Automatic annotation (TrEMBL):
DNA-binding found in the keyword field: yes
SUPFAM superfamilies, per the entry: Periplasmic binding protein-like II, Winged helix' DNA-binding domain
PANTHER family: HTH-TYPE TRANSCRIPTIONAL REGULATOR, HTH-TYPE TRANSCRIPTIONAL REGULATOR CYSL
Annotated Pfam families: HTH_1, LysR_substrate
The protein's name in its UniProt record: LysR family transcriptional regulator
Keyword Repeat: no
Superkingdom: Bacteria
Coiled-coil stretches: none
Length: 330
């Protein structure tokens, strides 16, 4: 091959692609696909426009836009009516499947929404479940008597797991720490109280108990991971003391309360749980110096997920109960 011929071949301009090939296909809108199917079923663009409640010129423009977007002639328009071309018939077959799938998607979404509106699954820590949620649920049921509410009771550490996994729509916790990143909203406040039976030496103290003695004395305690235990350990840490020492660890507030009344040892419990016992003399509240035992009670749900439906309503009910005094705020 001569040098001049090779140069001529190299310098020859590349072929210009056709205008049709250069235009990308445009995704058709759903109403245009519905229009195409109506033209196929009714044999008339005018009647298809009537069915969609649009003017015939508007339907004609929409059909033309669909044809340009796909680069195909889909409909033959004649004085006798409109009929699909072979390409139009193929596209209409695909369109029918797309719209059928869309209808199924919408029907499935509606079923899910109806289920969400008819059912509420709640996870809550023990103290909230025993002393506060019954009032909140009663209020919500008064507003929505058809609503089914399921409640899982566990400690504060496990509530976020149930919510994040989808086993609960919303959770309520009393602990200061979250093991997972969650959206939260305070619904109330609570205060822990050091309590002892009337025969315990602490019941006769004339001066407040020191934080250090509280940390050094074995106590009847809730299990690790409970909101009560987390709050106590955090308060002692902020007071530069060691964590609470367990004499006995029990899995429920009622069990701890019963053990203290029986004289097993002192404890730290929610004021909600022991208010009646203190008033009736079964337990004695012990003042403690230098320890803040207040805590927030919070609703939790997954980050990035909007709280809607009955779950949002229950959180609103809980906050309203705090505002009008049915839930304590310190």
């Amino acid at each position: 091959m001569s040098r001049s011929y090779a140069s001529a071949v190299t310098e020859r301009p590349a072929p210009v692609p056709s205008r049709t090939a250069a235009l990308p296909l445009r995704t058709p809108d759903l109403e245009s696909l519905r229009l195409l199917l109506l033209v196929a079923d009714l044999g008339s663009l005018g009647r298809a426009a009537e069915r969609l409640r649009i003017s015939q010129p508007s339907a004609s423009r929409r059909l033309s836009t669909l044809e340009r977007g796909l680069g195909l002639v889909l409909v033959d328009r004649t004085r006798r009516g409109s009929r699909l071309t072979l390409a139009g018939q193929v596209v209409a077959g695909h369109a029918r499947r797309v719209l059928d799938e869309l209808d199924e998607l919408l029907a499935g979404a509606e079923r899910l929404r109806a289920r969400r509106e008819a059912e509420l699954r709640v996870a809550a820590s023990l103290t909230i479940a025993e002393y506060l949620l019954p009032v909140w649920i009663s209020e919500l049921r008064g507003r929505r008597p058809e609503l089914y509410i399921g409640l899982q009771v566990t400690n504060s550490e496990h509530v976020p797991e149930l919510v994040e996994s989808g086993e609960a729509d919303v959770g309520f916790i009393e602990g200061p720490h979250l093991a997972r990143v969650m959206s939260t909203r305070q619904v109330a406040e609570d205060r822990l109280v050091v309590v002892a039976d009337p025969g315990h030496p602490w019941a006769r103290l004339r001066e407040p108990l020191s934080a250090r003695e509280l940390s050094r004395t074995p106590l009847v305690l809730r299990e690790s991971g409970s909101g009560t235990r987390q709050t106590l350990d955090r308060a002692l840490h902020l007071a530069d003391c060691d964590r609470a020492r367990p004499l006995v660890e029990l899995g429920s507030t009622a069990a701890v309360r019963g053990a203290v009344i029986a004289g097993t040892g002192p404890s730290v419990l929610s004021e909600l749980a022991v208010r009646g016992d203190i008033a009736e003399g079964r337990l004695v509240a012990v003042d403690v110096a230098g320890v803040d035992l207040t805590r927030e009670l919070r609703a939790v749900w997954p980050t990035g997920r909007r709280l809607v439906g009955p779950a949002a309503e229950l959180v609103a009910v809980a906050r309203e109960a705090t505002t009008d005094g049915r839930t304590p705020r310190r």
